[in-house]
């Protein structure tokens, strides 16, 4: 449940005087997001190429027939698309390119506020350096060395990538399924937040567990949260997984 | 005594869900004024809930959920000012030339480096003809040996698209790299500037030796002045970044880097449209014999003079300065 080492994060002090702490996206998320974006760009050009081949049979010939101005326009346009894709996406989609959106990561300034045009431009112009010598080698080494997984462009722009987790709150609010067999649970002291968390996580996972694992984990949790049970009650609670889980649910829900 | 976690979540959850759906709609950009007020209220409540979760339920999923929710709402409420056409216009009218004049030192050093490279390249090839074998790319040497300009065939040899786009994007790459490599302690821009200077100098000197100076001038005259200026400006921006790393002054290095980076990128972004424009000149007017040499030289010189006139004069009026100072101070205090 609790991570063994604190994950890297960005601390933000808001004007409302609460401390936010945003989890930082690691190199894995960033690589995957880049792969998605790179593939998108690649397939865009492949698709465009095929559309053009459908319209004109001889692409190279058609290109040659264009005037110098149009050729240069096209070349500059191609180049600009590769470069502006990132900045435009980040500015208009709240710090997310399509790849970042798929991976649920987002570019923010180091103080947690959204990126502006200049920050985004800086970090994306620096791709040229981070890409050196091949395939973001410089950027990857920097990310591995930096405590907040930033590449050189992020350091220059003062930005950082944060992760958005999908957190399910339903496990706290699920109604107890059956009547509690151990009705006297209510008189025991309420659990602390960590125990509630453990129990609820177990309950949400229990239906998918192997029967043996389910029974073993349930027993351990009952021993942890049901210290004041008598031996007879304990046996009764442990006689079936349903009874165990009903007991645990009641314990977690116990309102003082 | 704190309420048990499930009770807390059950009681407060409707507010959180409401805030979340408001945030989703805010991203799509459809919120009425009343809804914005609700968003603000809900954000404050969620912040209070987060404070409570931090104290009583640290490390739980509920805590992490609130953390994330508040971060999203915080991002939505403290947005940077929206970029508009008006601000773009102001940027080119005032901000970009003013930044350039403020950082003229760096641009000067950058120009010096390019000229140094130019002289070096020219000197080496003039004094020692075999130096050209080292400094001038082989393809160019072959053309010169045949007494032809390599640019004559720019648009007619197969595959032409590769060559044309290579030329057009090469300048973009050089410009971008001259800036971005500044983060390598300023070594990158120095290398890029000197290297390109040496290349141009060596090619020029080689053409001079082979009696092709007119051809060389014919090719570079139209776009050279502006293009070299842009590379020099981008190199200056890169040097700014490198200087912030080496000598951050009173600020911590990271902050100095960010502050200088923002200024430096203004120079690069400001150059972008001019770079695109000069790319057309280079692709369309410079090669071939569509235009006589005197026209190209005249165009190149007038474009260069216009460009520098704009850089040195634009936004310099007193009214402009007085108008900028106040909003700038306000903007920066809002950003803090």
Automatic annotation (TrEMBL), chain B:
Keyword list, A-Z: Membrane, Transmembrane, Transmembrane helix
Coiled-coil region list: none
Any single Pfam family the record assigns to this protein: SpoIIM
Residue spans crossing the bilayer: 106-127, 172-191, 198-222, 228-246, 267-285, 291-311
Name of the protein in question: Stage II sporulation protein M
């Amino acid at each position: 449940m609790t991570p063994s080492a604190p994950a890297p994060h960005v601390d933000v002090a808001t004007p409302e005087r609460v401390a936010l702490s945003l989890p930082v996206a690691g190199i894995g998320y960033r690589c995957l997001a880049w792969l998605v974006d790179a593939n998108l760009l690649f397939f865009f050009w492949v698709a465009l190429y095929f559309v053009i081949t459908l319209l004109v049979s001889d692409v190279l010939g058609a290109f040659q027939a264009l005037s110098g101005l149009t050729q240069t326009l096209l070349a500059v346009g191609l180049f600009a698309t590769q470069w502006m894709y990132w900045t435009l996406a980040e500015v208009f989609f709240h710090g997310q390119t399509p790849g970042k959106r798929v991976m649920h990561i987002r570019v923010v300034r180091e103080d947690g506020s959204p990126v502006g045009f200049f920050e985004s431009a800086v970090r994306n112009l620096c791709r040229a350096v981070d890409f050196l010598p091949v395939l973001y080698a410089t950027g990857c080494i920097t990310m591995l060395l930096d405590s907040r997984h930033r590449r050189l462009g992020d350091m220059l722009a003062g930005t950082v990538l944060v992760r958005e987790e999908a957190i399910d709150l339903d496990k706290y609010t699920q109604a107890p399924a059956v009547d509690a067999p151990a009705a006297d649970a209510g008189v025991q002291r309420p659990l602390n937040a960590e125990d509630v968390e453990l129990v609820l996580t177990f309950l949400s996972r229990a239906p998918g567990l192997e029967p043996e694992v389910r029974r073993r984990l349930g027993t351990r949790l009952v021993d942890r949260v049901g210290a004041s049970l008598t031996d007879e009650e304990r046996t009764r609670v442990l006689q079936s997984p349903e009874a165990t889980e009903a007991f645990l649910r009641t314990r977690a829900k116990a309102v003082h | 005594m704190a309420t048990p976690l499930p009770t807390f979540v059950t009681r407060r959850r409707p507010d959180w869900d409401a805030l979340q759906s408001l945030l989703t709609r805010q991203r799509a950009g459809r919120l009425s004024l009343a809804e914005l007020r609700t968003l603000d209220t809900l954000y404050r409540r969620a912040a209070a809930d987060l404070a409570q979760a931090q104290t009583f339920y640290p490390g739980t999923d509920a805590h992490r959920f609130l953390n994330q929710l508040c971060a999203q709402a915080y991002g939505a409420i403290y947005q940077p000012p929206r970029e508009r056409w008006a601000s773009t216009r102001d940027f080119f009218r005032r901000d970009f030339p003013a930044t350039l004049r403020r950082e003229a030192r760096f641009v000067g050093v950058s120009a010096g480096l390019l000229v140094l490279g130019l002289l070096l390249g020219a000197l080496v090839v003039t004094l020692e003809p075999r130096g050209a074998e080292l400094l001038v790319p082989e393809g160019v040497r072959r053309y010169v040996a045949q007494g032809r300009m390599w640019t004559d065939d720019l648009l007619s040899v197969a595959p032409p698209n590769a060559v044309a786009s290579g030329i057009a994007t090469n300048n973009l790459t050089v410009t971008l790299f001259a800036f971005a490599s500044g983060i390598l302690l300023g070594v990158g821009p120095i290398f890029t500037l000197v290297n390109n200077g040496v290349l141009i100098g060596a090619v020029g000197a080689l053409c001079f030796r082979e009696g092709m100076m007119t051809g060389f001038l014919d090719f570079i005259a139209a776009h050279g002045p502006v293009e070299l200026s842009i590379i020099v400006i981008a190199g200056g921006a890169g040097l700014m970044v490198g200087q912030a790393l080496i000598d951050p002054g009173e600020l911590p290095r990271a902050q100095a880097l960010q502050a200088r980076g923002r200024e430096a990128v203004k120079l690069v972004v400001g150059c972008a449209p001019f770079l695109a424009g000069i790319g057309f000149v280079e692709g369309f007017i410079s090669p071939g014999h569509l235009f006589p040499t005197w026209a190209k030289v005249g165009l190149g010189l007038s474009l260069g003079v216009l460009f520098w006139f704009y850089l040195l004069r634009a936004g310099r009026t007193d009214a402009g300065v007085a108008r900028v100072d106040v909003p700038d101070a306000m903007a920066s205090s809002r950003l803090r």
